[in-house]
Write a structure and sequence with these properties.
Elements (H helix, E strand, L loop, with lengths): L19 E7 L5 E8 L5 E7 L14 E7 L5 E7 L5 E8 L5 E7 L14 E7 L5 E7 L5 E8 L5 E7 L14 E7 L5 E7 L5 E9 L2 E8 L14 E7 L5 E7 L5 E8 L5 E7 L14 E7 L6 E7 L5 E8 L5 E7 L14 E7 L4 E7 L5 E8 L5 E7 L16 E7 L15 E8 L9 E6 L5 E6 L6 E5 L6 E6 L6 E5 L9 E3 L2 E3 L7 E3 L17 H13 L4 E7 L6 H21 L7 E5 L12 H7 L1 E8 L1
Parallel strand pairs: 29-35, 29-36, 38-39
Antiparallel strand pairs: 1-28, 2-3, 3-4, 4-5, 6-7, 7-8, 8-9, 10-11, 11-12, 12-13, 14-15, 15-16, 16-17, 18-19, 19-20, 20-21, 22-23, 23-24, 24-25, 26-27, 27-28, 29-32, 30-31, 30-33, 33-34, 37-40, 38-40
Length: 640
């Protein structure tokens, strides 16, 4: 089902041209759409939605619909995607970004054969916690035997989560249903265990749609059709319903807002002034609605989080219908709201089809700019944000292949749509691209347990080295940003483990992207032999070439980290020439390495040497390439 909400702007009866930097659609022949997204700390976007397709861009094995997560870079390229679901229907509705770089995903599940087996009934709130690489940390269902729907989820300051939506159950986790569907909120710890929960409502239907954390608790915003029990006052058919909880789940106050008709909120944001701005859709002309434009409008409502007092309100739209899906705050303190519109007048200054995606930027004094995007069919934005470059990114869905989307590669049915645009009035001076990053897990080779490790980048052209990152000891994940050079190497170091080197070769298509590289380190063991890479000597000589220095510097660093380790430097040659000559050459080359290490501060009593000449070939020599493999220098652990 489409979310039916958006915003509007009026600006001296004209709009500014909006420059589209890029846009992409993803999906298959069925219905695939985005519900929300977050900016990630590496310049990418984490997008959550729902997919029904099994073709096109989708390679899932699910049955009906799945919760769908995509990581997308700043050029609109899907870096990787994950599906979460079972035999029946799952959907993704909300996402938040956790402090450790992972994601909180919230939606609903009807299956009992997903990664969780504890579905309680028809439909449950479905919460999936994944790390930065998409691995599931935990996944849980919450509900009873009725229909329970997850609509929001936020990471809280204490490291836990606040999730919620609606419940139609009267058993399981729900002790007493007030009637119809109830407004349902759950506070979880970081493992997904329930710390407290609250369901409230009247004899009709209530839903919790969004939430924000404030200094002394949480404001949860939803809708109500009731006028009894927990609901203090109904102003019409459906009202905005705001409940304030303290940190422990105690209800501090409940208030309703609206007019004589249908008013439903969908998004909330904390303003720079620590007030709360709510965005939704209103069909009312009375009560708290002061500026009705016609049909359904974007309705913006600012309240004081201390007592719920109305501070400011406005409507945006035309004579048709508009629906607001999401509000965010830009870096300049102004607001962005997005949704959909079918108006041809009022604050809407362009129309492409049945319903257009609509974005407005505004402050409390006026509209700054507004833009309609789409084609002849139904198009909508479900989320919009300003990104660190100063540009704007919006996600949603499209059914069109003309108009604004004429040059996109539509997959059929309804597709996920992501678009990046520039500010039409104050555009940034440069286009920002996602940096090229390398990321992955660092584990123990044998136990597969995650390791705390340090990651160093080295410029192979000049030997300069710098610390590029540290892996997370709990998740094992590291991420490094690469400078714009093709001659780099990475060293991975962890106390008690042999270091590992990876040489970087970035193809053109990999630039400004995320490259996956998992690392397994071998625990220190007496007798372990490790080949030193890129150790070069002049032909027939023992003198080291400068190309050898970066790898030898990594060996120095390994010995500095593991201060009690003693090693033997083993020299080997190819099988050509006289054995006596090659034996001597291998000893001289091992000694040359020892001298280099001592010059770098490694004590002589920690170093031994041994030359093997041509006696221990790695491979049979048939050509220059195989002979080169036998010309090598190794280090062997002799004590630690």
């Amino acid at each position: 089902m489409y979310r039916f909400f958006l915003i509007f702007i009026f600006f001296n009866s004209f709009t500014y041209a909006q420059q589209i930097l890029w846009q992409q659609t993803f999906g298959g022949s069925q219905t695939d759409q985005a519900a929300a997204f977050v900016n990630t700390n590496d310049g990418c976007y984490g997008v959550i939605g729902t997919t029904r397709s099994k073709d096109g861009d989708l390679d899932r094995d699910g049955y009906d619909s799945d919760m769908w997560f995509c990581k997308i870079n700043s050029k609109g390229m899907v870096l990787w995607q994950k599906y979460f679901g079972g035999r029946f229907n799952e959907e993704g509705t909300a996402i938040d970004y956790s402090k450790d770089g992972g994601f909180l995903l919230v939606g609903s599940s009807e299956s009992k054969d997903t990664v969780v087996k504890d579905n309680h009934g028809k439909k449950d709130i479905y919460v999936v916690r994944i790390d930065a690489l998409g691995t599931i940390l935990w996944a849980k269902c919450y509900g009873g035997t009725g229909n329970d729907q997850g609509l929001f989820g936020i990471c809280t300051k204490d490291g836990g989560y606040l999730i919620g939506g609606s419940t139609g159950s009267n058993d399981g986790l729900i002790k007493k249903n007030q009637g119809g569907t109830d407004f349902w909120v759950l506070k979880l710890n970081y493992k997904g265990d329930i710390q407290w929960q609250s369901n409230l409502g009247g004899m009709s239907n209530e839903t919790a749609n969004c939430a924000v954390e404030v200094n002394d608790g949480f404001l949860v915003i939803g809708s109500t059709d009731s006028d009894n029990k927990d609901i203090p006052k109904n102003r019409g058919k459906t009202d905005y319903l705001v409940t304030k909880y303290d940190k422990n789940g105690k209800i501090l106050w409940i208030q309703t807002y609206g007019g004589e008709s249908f008013d439903e909120p969908h998004s909330v944001v904390l303003t720079p002034q620590n007030t709360v701005m709510i965005a939704g859709t209103s069909f009312s002309k009375s009560g708290d609605i002061k500026f009705h434009k016609g049909g359904g409008d974007f309705w913006l409502l600012e309240i004081d989080p201390r007592d719920g007092k109305i501070l400011w309100t406005n409507n945006y739209g035309g004579s048709g219908d508009e629906g607001a899906n999401m509000i965010s705050v830009g870096y300049d303190g102004n607001f962005l709201v997005c949704g959909m519109t079918n108006s041809l007048d009022g604050d809407v200054k362009g129309h492409n089809g049945v319903y257009d995606a609509w974005v407005i930027k505004f402050n409390k004094k006026n509209i700054i700019w507004t833009k309609s995007l789409g084609g002849k069919n139904n198009d909508s934005f479900t989320a919009v944000r300003e990104v660190p470059s100063g540009d704007y990114v919006a996600v949603g869905f499209t059914e069109s292949n003309d108009g604004t989307l004429a040059l996109t590669d539509r997959k059929g049915g309804v597709d996920l749509w992501i678009i990046s645009t520039r500010d039409p009035i104050n555009p940034p001076q440069a286009i920002s691209l996602t940096p090229t990053t390398i990321t992955g897990y660092i584990r123990d080779k044998d136990t597969k347990k995650f390791l705390p490790a340090e990651v160093y980048l080295m410029d192979e052209t000049n030997g300069s080295k710098y610390k590029a990152g540290t892996s997370n000891p709990e998740t094992g994940i590291y991420q490094i940003i690469l400078p714009d050079t093709h001659k780099m190497s990475i060293g991975f170091f962890s106390l008690g483990y042999i270091f590992k080197t990876h040489y970087i070769k970035i193809d053109e298509f990999q630039r400004y992207s995320e490259i996956r590289l998992d690392i397994e380190l071998e625990k220190l063991k007496i007798g372990t032999v490790t080949k030193l890479n890129n150790i070069e000597f002049d032909i027939g000589l023992a003198s080291l070439r400068p190309e050898s220095f970066p790898e030898l510097d990594r060996l120095v660093q390994f010995l500095q980290i593991n201060k009690t380790v003693r090693v033997r430097i083993n020299g080997h040659t190819d099988g050509t020439g006289q054995p006596e000559t090659k034996q001597k050459l291998s000893e001289l080359r091992a000694m040359e390495v020892k001298v280099y290490l001592m010059k770098k501060g490694i004590a002589p009593n920690r170093l031994e040497i041994k030359g093997y000449g041509m006696s221990k070939p790695l491979v049979e020599e048939v050509d220059e390439e195989t002979r080169q493999k036998n010309r090598r220098v190794e280090f062997e652990i002799i004590s630690f």
